[in-house]
Amino acid sequence: MAGLDYLLFEEAMGYAVFKVKLAQDDVGSRLKEVQEATKDLSKFSKIVELVSFAPFKGASQALENANEISEGIVSEFLKAVLEMNIPKGSEKKKIQLGISDRLLGPSIKEIFPYIDSQSNEVVQDLLRGVRLHAYKLLKELSEGDLERAQLGLSHAYSRAKVKFSVQKNDNHIIQAIALLDQLDKDINTFAMRVKEWYGWHFPELAKLTPDNYTYASLALQIKDKSSLTDESLHDIAAIVNEDAGLAQKIIDTAMISMGQDISEQDMDNVITFAERTVSISDYRKGLYKYLTDKMHTVAPNLTELIGEVVGARLISHAGSLTNLSKQAASTVQILGAEKALFRALKTKGNTPKYGLIYHSSFIGKASAKNKGRISRYLANKCSIASRIDNYSDDPNNTFGLILKKQVEERLNFYDTGAPPMKNADAIKEAIALNGANAVADDSDSDEDVSMVDADSKKEKKEKKEKKDKKEKKEKKDKKEKKDKKEKKRSTDSEESPKKKKSKKSKD
Fold it and tell me: Which parts of the chain are coiled coil (predicted)?
């Protein structure tokens, strides 16, 4: 770009400042000859000139600067580099600095008002050329030094980002709920296949036991229907929840079954597949228990309010508990219904009232006309619960219990009209449940509020006194003006007959 003065080159080994000797423009930078010149060091060295290279003191300083640059913050080290190597401009003629990350521009502008940061296509082309010839442009560097520094910094940066608390980590929740949903689909598919396959041998069993898990377990236990006798009653009853009548009916039906006989090899394959289906179902139960325990550890308030599965789906859809806590309640309400939302916006139809929270028991309890109202209220409480879980050092389910109570009372209010609990009372009750320390903190805050109220009352009193004084003074002034007018009027009336007499005498 015309007028570009300097380039800031961020490297794993440090910061480099280059002076731009030949400025390009947007059109010229796209020419093939100009782009080819970037690859040639002899030509590119005529475009930029190294002003200074400031290496980092160690890996820790490099990691610290990388983290701050990624967040758009100017570190103290970068501030010193820019201050020493870029001359001060004026308000009329500002220094044009090319940077790679446009997020860094406002931070530089805040510290150095005389620097305007640019991050356009021309700047990126120049920085690519600097990066290509870096080991030759930067003094006292050999080929391969920059690559090794980049590799070391990338490893350190990744390790710093991957670190997490074992007790409070939502990554496992996201993976667990995704696996749980996948297992539900797979188990359903496998169970239907078992029914269809084993149904050729014992077709009547599907009507007697509609449950997929029970059916697969019975297929494992029965195997060949001709082997069933009255002695098998106890084993069959154990599978069907100790229902002796159903177990006896299965045995009796097997004796008169219309199914075909199958070979031993075919039966082995059916049983092997049934075993796999049962084992996956057992694993699914263990995974659900794991997810429940994890949700009670990571997000106890959200779990208490809306349940483990729906809460986990909300976290998974948002990407993390932190992301969920940053969402507005209106966004939480339709989370999971994005397709319906954009379809409604495109066709100018009615927007969806709920997304994933539709699976909550509260939505099911509400009447048809109140589903939208309770979903909005529930989303509000979910947003509060997720924020408490995310930002608390040691979260527990105290606030979740109170928030759940509020939602239940709001449902009751829609049906009966009974007034629900107010938010202030709910917070006080939650703090009271949370322990004596929290109550003490709450009392301190109440004292502060009372002091503020007293100060405000005193201030109001003083204002009222001043207002009264002002009104009295205004009334007094008005009265004096009125008296003066009346006095003047009376004097004028006395003088008028005298003037008339004098006029008659003259005549």
Answer: none
Mapping DSSP onto H, E and C, the string for 297-325 reads: HHCHHHHHHHCHHHHHHHHHHHCCHHHHH
For the question of whether the overall pTM of this predicted structure is more than 0.70, the answer is: no
Q: Are residues 19 and 149 in the same domain?
A: yes
Q: What is the CATH number of the domain that holds 137?
A: 3.30.420.220
Lowest-confidence pick of 32-41, 114-123, 444-453: 444-453
User: Per DSSP, which regions of 190-294 are E strands?
Assistant: none
- Do 400 and 351 lie in a common domain? yes
Answer yes or no: do 96 and 125 share one domain: yes
pLDDT in tens, 280-315: 999 999 999 999 999 999 999 999 999 999 999 999
Contact 97, 7 (CB under 8 A): yes
Burial of 23 (0-12, 13-18, 19+ CB in 10 A): middle
Domain count, the chain: 3
Q: How far is CA 271 from the centre of its chain?
A: 47
What tokens appear for 362 in the block? 């509260």
Burial of 278 (0-12, 13-18, 19+ CB in 10 A): buried
350 with 425, same domain: the answer is: yes
Residues near 42 by Cβ (< 8 Å), separated by ≥ 6? none
User: 258 with 206: CB under 8 angstroms?
Assistant: no
- Burial of residue 502 (CB within 10 Å: 0-12, 13-18, 19+) is exposed
Q: What is the pLDDT of residues 371-380, one digit of tens each?
A: 999 999 999 9
